[in-house]
Amino acid sequence: MGALVLAAGDTFTPPGAGDFNLPSIFGQVTKPMLLVVLSVIIVAAYFLISSRKLKIVPSRGQFAAEYLYNFARNGMAREQIGSKDFQPFIPLVLALFSFVLVNNIFGLIPFFQFPTMAHIGFPLALSVLVVYPVYHFVGFKRHGFVGYLKHATVPPGAPLAIYFLLTPIEFLQKFVLNPVTLAIRVFAAMFAGHLILLVFTAAGEFLLVNAAPAFKPISVVSFAFAILMTFVEALIQVIQAYVFAVLSANYIGAALAEDH
User: Which residue ranges traverse the bilayer (predicted)?
Assistant: First the structure.
């Protein structure tokens, strides 16, 4: 059957993890590195330009920026941190959401076509070097060193014997696993989504070029799935940016809360 479908000697090699290891552009600088820098410029420029001349009746650009701000303020920071403490963390939550969103969307933009969060190092650095220090710092500041350790690892109301098992688990979750799982969520979604798009696109191209004439129309099915998955991936990219920002706010809120 394979010989009927494909010309002799042709084999399809599906895309894999190696396709995410892009070559250096110059020196040790790779395309994902440049995209991360570009995303910072895009986010900063957008909010600086859209807020430069604020009007009572907003322009479309101002309206979009205000919508994003209100979404980060009320839908994430206030909801997760609480009305008492959320104000200082609005810029952080907004920046996290915008930064991750732009880097995710790069995967669908022609020429860029790579979601930088599909490299585990970027979301891990964001989680470990930004989110992790912030929520533990505010926790230690609010409760004191011993008080925060107790707050984070000793849930009230459990039987004494349970704490020998529960406290190490809570410590592992709060001080080790939270930043790792926060990074892995967005990484796994971006990696898997982009890999699926690569598979359908490469398969469609391969069938179109190498399949026997009677089987070339099958490539249309592969391209159709690639288009469908592009829309699905766009939705997931937005959702994952939201999840990253809202979980970051949740960790800050949990660190500041009076209860465990």
Answer: 32-49, 89-112, 118-138, 145-166, 186-208, 220-243
